Amino acid sequence: MKQDKKEYILEVAERVFSELGYEGASTRYLATEAGVNMAMLNYYFGSKDGLLKAVLERRINVLRQALLAIKEKPISAWEKLMQAVDVYLERVLKNNGFHRLIQRELSLNQRPEITQTITEQVLQNTKVLKDIIQEGIDDGSFRPVDAEMTIASILGTKYYISNSSHISSRLLQVDLTGENVMEVLKPRMKHFLQDFLQAYLLKK
Asked: Where are the alpha helices (DSSP H) in 46-95?
């Protein structure tokens, strides 16, 4: 039962942090939204930083488990990579506010322990992508490309569009400041990344 309550607090905290940011989400408001008292919040997580850290680890780990499951499938490296990109876009675009929170924490670096947590967790995810790309290089289906720069290009496409919405709106000729716009843009991003990776990775 305790685990259920803890999971519920994490779900609520993720929503609140996504909507209000770290500074805007007071521990009192977080406790009220989760229907618990401050003592319970402190018992499980110790502090607001501890709660944010737990939220980040939980969310990023969910994506990693999905990527690891794809990596182990008995399919080609190309199919694995396309499924991994699809899962990545589905998850990050579904909760764009949460991923903006991650980028804000990384860019401001005001809480070194949180920054370190995000860095270590995300790098574990990028390692799965690197392993998939390396598998394709090793079996000869991919060109011997720079795997790290390939990953940076995949992640960078989403990050630039999301974090430079005013410029990207003009560039892509679509208003990226509205509600659920990333869901509308998702097919275009998927199609571009598939074409880009196909041209870059696959041997002629």
From this structure: 48-71, 77-94
Assess contact for 151 and 133: CB atoms under 8 A. Answer: yes
What pTM, to 2 d.p., does this model score?
0.84
pLDDT tens-digit series, residues 58-90: 888 889 999 999 999 999 999 999 999 999 888
Question: Residue 46: left if φ>0, alpha if ψ -120 to 50, beta else—which one?
Answer: left
DSSP state of 73: S
Domains and CATH numbers, the chain: 1-46 (1.10.10.60), 57-201 (1.10.357.10)
CA angle 5, 8, 12 (to 5 degrees): 140
Q: Distance (Å, rounded) from C-alpha 67 to C-alpha 70? A: 5
